[in-house]
Write a structure and sequence with these properties.
single chain, mainly alpha, 2 domains, 10 helices, flat
């Protein structure tokens, strides 16, 4: 029985790593402009593999929607293959957890919640294609991926045989951890909105924007969530002032998150004791890396490796704050 529980934990850890890969692949697909590499879902031009040429496409109607670009199609399909595999692993965790529901310490609700989320994620993936990269759907798909990763991380922590070391005085730190987590989630959502509206380079300089501290901005158009259907959002539809407003808000949000999480990390290092100090160093290191990548995206004009790394480190920063929260809220063993 003990060995079975260890194996369940190992599967949860593997699912967590797989979810991180899916998040990174999703960012790579989006940032390399391959989100519509396949005009249909779940296949690509009606096939489970990308056709080698337009002559090989059996369902010619898809070519009327979008010319075949195999390199983009493969980026999209590799992402789907990994996401589909992750869905199967989560299904295994849900079934296995339910069968072991009478075993003390076995999570049952969390794997079922994960299964519901991953099904909804698949629907968002489909709508991303059928609604032609509608920003609110793309942002929702991004947040769903981060949510899946975060909950799998919690599941992996909950099924550890050795309890995660916690704080001797958690109540003091809990409000700060909650606020930090909320601020980071909002900033991740802003990042998704910036990317899905192709606003990452609206301000090509740093720390100013277009050579000014307050450039021309259109906030009314910048944050309209729904613009109807039938619009192709590839490469964006907003005018430059609206994109500038999105970028500017994301940059201000980044500053606020940097100041708050930096303060929290230093406070944990100096006053949190040995255990929380280690988590503080982790948060601080990831935070400095993330800010550097964000600035690099602007000054280097959004190179693909840096932009993808920016998404990956955001995910790791989220996990570091979840680790902190878990250390503060876990039940004493």
């Amino acid at each position: 029985m003990q060995g079975t529980f260890v194996n369940y934990h190992r599967l949860a850890v593997a699912a967590c790593f797989l979810a991180l890969i899916v998040v990174v692949l999703g960012a790579y697909t989006r940032l390399s402009h391959a989100g519509l590499g396949c005009p249909d879902w779940p296949g690509c031009y009606g096939e489970l593999v990308v056709p080698a040429s337009e002559e090989a496409v059996q369902h010619k109607d898809y070519l009327a929607q979008r010319p075949l670009e195999p390199h983009k199609g493969w980026k999209e399909m590799v992402h789907r293959y990994f996401a589909g595999t992750l869905g199967l692993v989560i299904l295994m965790l849900a079934i296995w957890g339910w069968l072991r529901r009478d075993v003390p310490g076995q999570p049952t609700l969390l794997p079922l919640v994960l299964l519901v989320i991953v099904v909804f994620q698949a629907m968002l993936g489909m709508w991303t294609v059928t609604l032609q990269l509608k920003p609110v759907v793309v942002m929702g798909h991004l947040l769903g991926g981060f949510t899946t990763l975060a909950l799998l991380f919690v599941l992996a922590l909950r099924t550890r045989q050795t309890p995660v070391p916690g704080s001797v005085n958690p109540g003091v730190w809990r409000p700060y951890a909650v606020l930090g987590l909320l601020l980071l989630v909002l900033q991740i959502a802003l990042g998704g909105w910036t990317s899905s509206n192709y606003a990452a380079l609206a301000c090509p300089d740093f720390p100013t924007c277009q050579g000014r501290w307050l450039p021309e901005m259109d906030f009314r158009e910048a944050f309209v969530l729904w613009r109807g259907i039938g619009i192709n959002y590839e490469f964006g539809v907003l005018e430059h002032p609206a994109r500038t407003a999105i970028h500017f808000v994301h940059r201000v949000g980044a500053l606020l998150v940097f100041l708050y999480l930096g303060w929290l990390a230093l406070r944990l290092i100096n006053r949190g004791g040995e255990i929380l100090a280690r988590t503080g160093w982790l948060i601080l290191g990831l935070l400095l890396t993330q800010v550097s990548l964000g600035i690099g995206n602007v000054l280097l004009h959004l190179p693909l490796p840096v932009a993808v790394a920016h998404n990956a480190v955001a995910a790791l920063l989220l996990l570091s704050l979840i680790l902190l929260s878990y250390q503060l809220w876990q039940r004493p063993s």
